[in-house]
Structure formats: C-alpha cells, structure tokens
Amino acid sequence: MLAHLYPHEMNIYGDTGNVLVLRRRLEWRGLAVEVVPVGVGTAIPPTTDILLGGGGQDAAQGEIGADVLTKGPDLRAMAADGVVMLAICGMYQLLGHEFLTHDGQRIPGVDVLDVVTRGSDTRLIGNHAVDTAWGQIVGYENHSGLTELGPAASALAATSVGKGNNGIDRTEGCLTNNVIGTYLHGPVLAKSPAFADELIARALRRRGDEIDLEPLDDAVALRAAVVAAGRPR
Amino acid sequence: MAVLAVWVGKIVLMALRLGGRSGNALPGLIVEKLFPRYLPRALARLPHGVVVVSGTNGKTTTTKMLAAALAQKFTVLTNDTGSNFVRGAITATVDASSWTGRLRADVAVFELDEAHAVRFVEVVAPQRVLLLNVMRDQLDRFGEIDTTARLLRTVAQAATVAVALNRDDPRIAAIGTDLGTPNRLGAEVVWFGVAPALRGLFPTDEELYSGAQPDPGSAGPVQAQLRDWGAGGATIALSPGDAATDPDASVDTIALRAGGAHNAQNAAAAAAIAATFDLAPDLIFAGLRAVEPAFGRGQSFTIDGRTVALHLVKNPAGFRQSLRAVEGEAPDEVVIAINDDYADGRDVSWLWDVDFAAHLPGTGTDSSGPAVRTTGVRAADMAVRLRYDDVPVADIQPALALAVDAAIAAAPAAGRVLVFATYTAMWSLHEHLVDAAAASDGDGPKEATR
Ligand SMILES: [Zn+2]
Predict the structure, then answer these.
(1) Class of the A2-230 domain?
(2) Cα A31 to chain centroid, rounded
(3) Among B13-27, B221-235, B326-340, which stretch is predicted with the lowest mean pLDDT?
(4) What sign does the dihedral A172-A173-A177-A178 (CA atoms) show?
(5) CB A13 to CB B143 under 8 A?
(6) Integer Cα distance of B419 and B416 in angstroms
(7) pLDDT > 70: percent of chain B
(8) Edge-to-edge strands of the sheet including B128-131?
(9) In this structure, what DSSP letter does residue B369 have?
(10) What's the CA-to-centroid distance between A157 and ligand 1, angstroms?
(11) How far apart are CA B378 and CA B383, in angstroms?
(12) 3-state helix/strand/coil string of B190-248
C-alpha cells in the first residue's frame, strides 16, 4: 500500500507525480497497489509499505508542522520497522530534528532523520542530477532551507554541479535504512526509473516477497534524464 | 535628455526592423541602461497615467481588451507585442514618441509579470493597477506562490487612483483586505468577479491542486461581474455599487472574438478598471467587442488545406483550460511543444499537474482519438508524462518545425492539427507556420484568426 502524506498541502513542483509513477510501475507489472491519502488529522495506515511526502508552500509548512508532530511516534516506529519512505523538500525537512526559519522561528521535526535545516534568504534552484548506487537520479531542486547531516545520517548522493542539501558540503539528500529524504522535485521518480524500482524492491523485500521486478521499457525516461541533466540550471 | 533617449531607442528599433527583426527588448534595454530616468519622466506627462496589468494568466488578452476599451476615448500606449518586461514598456514608449521626444498618448497600459511589475512600480508610480490571479507558474523564477502574491501586493500598494482585484482568487482577495480602501496612496479598490453559477469554470490554485470545492466565502460587492457565459457570448454587468445585484447596472452580452471562459473573465477584469476612468459603459463594451485574440491564443493557420491552431501553454491551469476548450474540436493530430528556456520556466515539473488522461479523450484505451506527438527541448519529458497517463505517443521529435510538419502531413485533407506550445516554442512555431501558410498553395486567408 502507498500512503501519500498531505496530498493537498504538500504537492508542489510535481511531487504528486511520484505517487503516479510508483502506482503505474506496479500496475504495469500486474502487482496490486492501493493509494491512500493521509491528510491533517488522519492516522497513517499501519499496513503502509511505502510512504510518500512532497514539498509545500512555506505557509503550509507551519500548519503541517503541527500535524506531523502528532504523527511523530508512528513515523518513528514505521521507520524503525523498515517502511520505505520518500520525503521531498518540505517533508524531508520535517522528518529531521528541526527547521529554523529565516525569521528565527523554530519548527520542530519528528527526528526520523538526523538532519537539521536552517532557512536562508537565497533559493537553491535548478536542474540537478546526482549519481547513486541505483543510477543517475534526475530532478529539479528549489529550496531555501539549508540542511546539515548529523553523524547518524548519510548522504543519498554527492553533488557535482547542483547545490544539494546546503550548497556547501556537496551532499544531496539523506538515506537512513529505508528512509530517503531529497531536495529533488520534478517529480524525481519520473526520470529516475531504477531509483523508483529500488523503492518498490525494498518495500516488497520487507514484506517477504522476494520478487524479481520485471524490467520495463524506460528508454524514454532515460532519454529525458539525459536531456534534463544537460540543461542549464 | 528625453529627446536623446528617444533617438537612441528609435535608431536601434529602426536598425532591427531594417534587419527584418521585430525585437522589442533590445531598444528598451539600451535606453534603460543609458537613460535610467527616461521612462518615469516620459510617463509622468501622461494625463491619465499608467495602468499596470499583472497576474499569472490572461495578462496579454486582458491588456488588449483594456487598451481597446480605453481607445474608445483616449490615445492609448501599450506594450502589445507580448514582451511583458520593463524593457518592452520602454520600447513601446519610445516607439510612440515623436522624434522631438513628445509622447503621443493619454494613458499607458502595460502588461508586466509579477517580478517585473515590482521593478516597474519602483520607478514609475502607476495611477491604476489591475491584478488578475495568482497561479503556479514558472515558480523557479519567483520561488513560491505566496512570494508571488507578496510581489503583487507591493504593486497594488503603489497605485494612486484605483486598484481592480479579482474577488474569486483567494490570494488576490487577501491583497484587497490588506490594502484597505482607499490604499495608503488614496487609490480606491474596485472588485470584479464571476457569478456563483460560473465559479466552477475558474478553479483557483487550491481547487486545482487539492480538489477543494469552490469557496463561496469570498462574496462581496463587485463593480464588474461576469453574469453569464455561453454560446451567445459573455454577459457583463457594471455598477459602481454591486454589479451582482444592482437593478440599474449596465449589462451587455458581448460575443468576444477571443474564445474560452477565461477570456470572458478577462473581459470583466478589463471592464472593472476601465470603469474607473470617465468612460461610459457602452464605450467599454464596444471596446471589448473589437479585440482580436492575442498572439498565440488560439491563432490558426491554413496549410495544405489543413487547419493548424496554436495555443500557448505555460502553467497547469492554462493547459487544462486549453485542453478543455478543444475537447469539442475533434482534432486529428495533437502536438505538444515543451521548451525550458528562461522565458518558458526552467522547471517542467508543472506538466505533472495537468491531467492528460482526462483531457485528451479517446487517446487512451480507445484509439479513435488524435495522434499525439511531443516536441521541443523537453519532448522526451513530455512523452514520459503522457506515458504515465497511458496516453500513447506517436512520435518524439525535438525539432519543432519537423514535428509540426509531420503532424500536418499525417492529418487527412481538411483535417485539424492542434499545437500546444510553451512561450519560446510558440514564437519559433509561429514564425514557421506563417511561412508555411504563405508557401502553401491553398486559397483563402493565409493567416486566419478564429
Ligand atoms: Zn523544494
């Protein structure tokens, strides 16, 4: 089951497309899939295999910040239990310890990832491609929060041309067990098919289903990725 | 100094035109650099000042409509070339001036995108401001939608005579609440809106993204209302009180030349700000009737007996509207041209916020629908998007002209090709289609407008 966190409030820059990409890639292989929206005041279903959350307006983030705290215990338990999570931008920040806004406000996170984010007055914007163990991941970053990884966190990838977590330490995103945070919008899974399949494979493995995923024809997605990676930021 | 600035601008313009180019940014850019005070000084002499038209969607058409309404009584200066940057405004001003530096106009109407509107009002105090809507558009340039709304609030604060605002757009409505009426500089706030029964045709950004129901809570008096819209045209009511309820409101039904519900809403917007001039409602309605569709907004061409219609797409709301508008047209071929240059917006993720499965009927499991081709720099991105919506893609051809020519060749005699293109893709395709229509041996108008 795919749980989609805050589909109404956290869906900016095509992030909702990640849900569609995973759903279709399961359907195309004849695997059953159910998508459940999880909004403010709704509990995350305990049968969730993959949890997806996107970025939002700064204004939405304050409102969502309060609700996500109530989901904190569930999120920590699920992360410890190996539930696959893909959190983009705003949701990535909220999975960390805290977000210190530019005007000094502190939005506490849920401590799932060992990261801390500070607001800044410049936005890190542009096409961004990074290399990972699952091939190139291609998306579009757009954020003003600068994220620092703590000792318990490891980066999802190293950056070469993009800005990534903070524009300084050449890291992009965070990977802790099956929880992934990243600044790549786009939606990131559209042009990163191997990465999408890795999320599906991890979720299936956790359920004890050792299925070899049938390969899909991703030629067009990979072609789009090559174009995007070569475009100006 | 004005004379010198005008001379420099005019000479650059002439050089461009002699070279067969219709550039409108370069002369403005040069004058802006050499004579930074030229624009405010020239515009300060306009008896009825400047109107700034801004918002995400509909600026070009609304600017044309407003200019046409004001032209019933005044000499109007406008940047009607689609260059909605400050430089475009400078070029238009230079072009409308005599060689002695005198500006031959009573009032100026400038279309400016949100960021440029802020820059503009820093140098020129506009008498009037018209704000249409705030939708997600090219967000990589402005950051976020709330930032965009803040930019527009700054623009509205700069008006000295009147501000016209969209009652149905929550972010624009909030600007009105913030401003108060009159605003700090004494500008009165007037409102435009659509009748409650029509609200469903104009989803706000929130409704578009969250499926939220239209919010009826923003009701309040409007000075211009779109009462009805349909085959007979757009019915617009004007009243200084509440156009929705005033039995003495001036009401007219106008068969707008620019089709689509959004153009009917734009007409109400133009009427609202036009009514703040000393201009009789009949003249306003007459002006609205005269407007041709703006460049690329449904323009069509006849090539080898086929009709090719060109639609600009630049954000999810506009793309959805365009797709809906063509549902009834049963095209044989559809071409989607996506570029990602600066003017298009570098980020193409917005394509994922358009529901193609629902709006390209007959292309999915039912194969009776049009063949869909993708083109432009991001042709492959667009094809990936369609694939995930189960819309089959007939061809991926990044070269714009080749893709459109293939669609024309594949369409049956007297067939119909619809092209959806982002800004820069539309510019190059427009040029190609004008040439192709001229070279085509078909009879009739070479560049017909619907
Ligand atoms: Zn972001």
Answers:
(1) alpha beta
(2) 22
(3) B13-27
(4) negative
(5) no
(6) 10
(7) 84
(8) B76-78, B107-111, B50-54, B128-131, B162-166, B188-194, B224-230, B233-238, B250-254
(9) S
(10) 17
(11) 9
(12) EEEEECHHHHHHCCCHHHHHHCCCCCHHHCCCCCEEEEEEECCEEEEEECCCCCCCCCC
**Confidence at residue B201, expressed as pLDDT on a 0 to 100 scale:** 74
Amino acid letter, residue A167: G
When pLDDT is averaged across residues B332-338 and rounded to a whole number, the result is 95
- The DSSP bridge partners found for residue B335 are B373, B419
Question: Do B349 and A9 count as a contact with CB atoms less than 8 A apart?
Answer: no
Q: SS3 for B53?
A: strand
Residue given tokens 């215990």 in the structure block: A73
**B347–A contact, CB cutoff 8 A:** yes
Q: Which two tokens stand for residue B28?
A: 């403005």
Q: What are phi and psi of B58, to 5 degrees?
A: 90, 5
Domain ranges of chain B: 2-290, 297-441
**pTM of the predicted structure, to 2 decimals:** 0.70
- Quick check: B209 and A11 CB within 8 A? yes
> Shortest Cα distance from A80 to chain B (angstroms)?
31
Q: Where are the domains of chain A?
A: 2-230
**Chain B residues 136-155 with a CB less than 8 Å from chain A:** 136, 139-140, 143-146
The CATH fold assigned to B2-290 is UDP-N-acetylmuramoyl-L-alanine:D-glutamate ligase (3.40.1190)
Q: Of B102, B81, B98, B75, which is closest to residue B26 (Cα–Cα)?
A: B81
Residues making up chain A, counted from first to last:
233
User: Given a cut of 70, is residue B219 above it in pLDDT?
Assistant: no
* Choices 3.90.190.20, 3.50.90.10, 3.10.20.70, 3.40.50.11540: CATH for B297-441: 3.90.190.20
Question: Residue length, chain B?
Answer: 450
3-state secondary structure B126-187: CCEEEECCCCCCCHHHHCCHHHHHHHHHHHHHCCCCEEEEECCCHHHHHHHHHHCCCCCCCC
CB neighbourhood size of B250 (10 A): 18
Contact A18, A25 (CB under 8 A): no
Size of interface A-B (CB pairs under 8 A): 95
Long-range contacts of B242-247 (CB under 8 A, 24+ apart): B244/B193, B244/B195
In angstroms, the CA B29 to CA B187 distance is 31
Chain A residues in contact with B140 (beta carbon < 8 A)? 125-126, 140, 142
Tell me which residue has tokens 């996500």. A68
Top-confidence residue, A116 or B360: A116
Name the residue among A33, A46, A40, A30 with its Cα closest to residue A10: A40
Query: Coil, helix or strand for A214?
Result: coil
Q: Which residues pair with B216 in a beta bridge?
A: none
**A5, two tokens:** 């966190």
Q: Could you read off the pLDDT of A9-67 as tens digits, one per residue?
A: 888 888 999 999 999 999 999 999 999 999 999 999 999 999 999 998 765 667 788 99
The tokens describing B252, both together, are 């007219």
pLDDT-above-70 percentage for chain A: 98
The SS3 assignment for B183 reads: coil
Computed over every residue of chain A, the mean pLDDT equals 93
What is chain B's mean pLDDT, rounded?
A: 84
Summarised one tens digit per residue, pLDDT across range A59-74 is 566 778 899 999 999 9
Cα within 13 Å of Cα(B194), Cβ side: 23
- Distance between CA atoms of residues B417 and B307, nearest Å: 6
Which CA distances in Å does B21 have to A91, A132, B16, B96, B429?
48, 47, 5, 18, 16
Bridge partner list, A145: A119
Q: What is the pLDDT of residues A84-94, one digit of tens each?
A: 999 999 999 99
Out of A58, A127, A220, the one facing B383 most closely (by C-beta) is A220
| Chain B residues touching A186 at Cβ < 8 A | 349
The closest CB to that of A185, out of B144, B340, B349, belongs to B349
**SS3 call for B408:** helix
